[in-house]
Design a protein that fits this description.
Blueprint lengths: L2 E4 L1 E4 L2 E8 L15 H29 L2 H14 L2 H14 L3 H17 L4 H22 L13 E5 L4 H5 L6 E6 L7 H9 L3 E3 L4 H4 L5 E5 L4 E4 L3 H22 L15 E6 L5 H6 L4 E6 L1 H5 L7 H14 L4 E5 L26 H7 L1 H14 L4 E6 L5 H20 L9 E6 L2 H5 L1 H4 L5 E4 L1 H8 L18 H16 L3 E4 L9 H7 L4 E4 L4 H9 L3 H13 L3 H13 L2
Helix pairs in contact: 1-2, 1-5, 2-5, 3-4, 4-5, 9-21, 12-14, 14-15, 20-22
Length: 573
């Protein structure tokens, strides 16, 4: 019988295939005692070693298949597997209680996972899932049980699971896995992000998909609408095949714009850039016709290291990006650690609300040594291209002024040391705190550009944690109040003769983009895979139409009203 299930559209596309249930293997763990402790400890060490080897293979394959940023998920998993404190506690339990290694590892790892879950920090809470994922792998080896292996899929299917761990998702083969559907998850979960990078359709958060399908069932996965159709009729299959053909035709049309300029129907040029996390991501920027980099997240350079990267290590990474883009603009954000991003080698005090705490520029202005190392590397790299330095999490004018003082000190140091550097580097700030948006006219006198970080600006404007599903309805990028804040920032920048870009998720949103251009946004920085669709969309509308559209949106009252209005306008209704 035909059945429809709604979920969250996590990755665009449509797939029609039979179901492959990727189910968690049951690990039967008992509290049986052991007589040979030494043998049990040897068994433990072997299981950890094998697991680390497997994780390293997955990590390397992810780096090749996707990029270094996604591969770093498995660096964290390797660190968990090799954590000496977890191993010590497991060994102590085996020695003291003579309990079997699987039981001991389950007990200790669960204690660590629950400790992470109890923290008032979304990033740390997410680490609980990582601990359980790694523990499950090690325990399976201790029990001699084979885990579900996505690499064994050798026919075209749609994978259905309760959830997909990062290691599951990284091992999906696009040749055979045409999409996936999960019970849990959201658009920002690891699995959703990886699906978009793999360019396969995905729906998450269906709640009950596993209860509704069995292996071999035919399903339609509509990743455009977030809808699953189970056991569809021939008519339904034909309808969605046509819809998929229409979508693929659009993708083919978008691909023709790779070497085109980003211009509206009436000839207004707009800059479409990409967000990256490492030099390896530049290839995707070029492949998708990016006009530069609007956000280089340098924290991944730190997170992928066992210690603070040296000035020379940073210089080489920044130089690679600048040279690869051949004098196209590259905006590099200074270290944005804190909130949901931490370094194992940088102890930080536990905070009740780390997103509003000691992070990003606030941390750098306290740790001038770290700040100067990065700024010196950036200034040196600046001779190799069009470098723009951007400070994150700015709240006050004094923070900007202090940061500029440190930057100038670095210039003087390099000059004294006879080291070549760029004295023409542009300096800007991220606008992600409402206080800065409101005072944008004053900030615009101090910097060369603004870049609006909408992910944080939205959560701070609506007092709603964007990772909290219970208030996810308050993630409202089209809300007129937010649009008015954005307009204030753009108008203030233009009055002072500087430009404003956007590097949050909203920049690549196909409903938001025409509104933003109509408001006067100068640069859009997004996932590289969104550039061509956005370039195509702009080519079909006039700047005059988008300005009129934006003016109307500012007069509306709700997020939903704006969305409906823009959708109708785009359709020509």
């Amino acid at each position: 019988m035909l059945m429809k299930i709604k979920g969250i559209a996590a990755s665009d596309g449509i797939a029609i295939n039979k179901v492959f249930r990727l189910e968690a293997v049951i690990l039967n763990i008992t509290d049986a005692k052991v007589t040979n402790v030494e043998q049990e400890l040897k068994k433990l060490n072997n299981a950890i070693a094998v697991s680390v080897t497997e994780l390293k293979v997955i990590r390397d394959k992810t780096a090749i298949k996707l990029d270094e940023e996604h591969a770093m998920i498995f660096d964290a998993h390797i660190q968990i597997a090799e954590d000496p404190e977890i191993a010590r506690q497991v060994e102590d339990m085996i020695n003291s209680s003579m309990v079997n290694s699987a039981h001991a590892f389950k007990t200790v790892s669960e204690m660590f996972a629950q400790m992470f879950e109890s923290m008032d920090n979304d990033y740390m809470k997410e680490r609980a899932a990582d601990v359980r994922d790694v523990a499950r792998r090690i325990i399976a080896h201790l029990l001699g049980v084979a885990l579900s292996d996505p690499t064994m899929i050798n026919e075209e299917v749609i994978v259905v699971a309760d959830d997909l761990t990062p290691s599951d998702t990284a091992q999906l083969d696009r040749e055979f896995v045409k999409g996936f559907i999960t019970n849990i998850g959201g658009r920002t979960s690891h699995s959703a992000i990886m699906a978009r990078s793999l360019e396969i359709p995905a729906i998450v958060g269906t709640k009950n998909i596993l209860d509704s399908v069995k292996n071999g069932d035919l399903v339609i996965l509509d990743g455009l609408a977030g809808e699953v159709i189970i056991n569809p009729s021939e008519e339904e299959v034909a309808k969605y095949k046509a819809k998929n053909a229409e979508f693929l035709e659009k993708v083919a049309v978008w691909s023709k714009f790779v070497n085109e300029k980003s211009v509206t129907l009436d000839g207004k040029h707009v800059e479409l850039a990409a967000n990256i996390g490492s030099p390896d991501d530049v290839e995707s920027v070029i492949k998708n016709g990016g006009e530069g980099v609007g956000l280089y997240r340098t924290e991944f350079l730190y997170m992928n290291n066992d210690d603070f990267p040296t000035e020379d290590e940073q210089y080489i990474a920044y130089k690679m990006v600048l040279e690869s883009l051949k004098n196209k603009k590259v905006v590099i954000r200074t270290l944005d650690i804190g909130g949901d991003k931490h370094l194992d080698y940088l102890p930080m005090d536990e905070e009740l609300n780390p997103f509003l705490g000691h992070r990003a520029l606030r941390l750098c202005l306290e740790r001038i040594d770290l700040f100067k190392t990065q700024l010196r590397a950036l200034l040196r790299a600046g001779v190799h291209g069009d470098l723009h330095i951007m400070f994150p999490m700015v709240a006050t004018l004094n923070e900007v002024r202090k940061a500029k003082v440190v930057l100038n000190e670095c210039k003087e140091e390099l000059k004294t040391e006879g080291i070549k550097y760029s004295d023409t580097v542009k300096v800007g700030i991220m606008v992600e705190i409402p206080a800065v948006a409101i005072l944008a006219d004053q900030f615009a006198k101090e910097v060369d550009f603004f870049s609006i970080g909408t992910n944080d600006l939205i959560q701070y404007s609506f007092a709603a944690d964007r990772m909290n599903q219970k208030v996810s309805y308050l993630y409202q990028p089209y809300n007129p109040s937010l649009l008015r804040l954005i307009k204030m920032v753009i108008d203030a920048s233009h009055k002072e003769g500087i430009w404003t870009g956007m590097c949050g998720e909203m920049a690549g949103d196909q409903i938001a983009a025409p509104i933003l251009l109509g408001l006067g946004l100068d640069e859009f920085s997004m996932s590289a895979t969104s550039i061509l669709q956005t370039r195509y969309s702009f080519s079909k509308l006039t700047y005059k139409e988008m300005k009129e559209m934006a003016e109307t949106c500012l007069t509306l009252g709700t997020h939903e009203e704006v969305q409906a209005f823009v959708e109708n306008k785009i359709k020509g209704e």
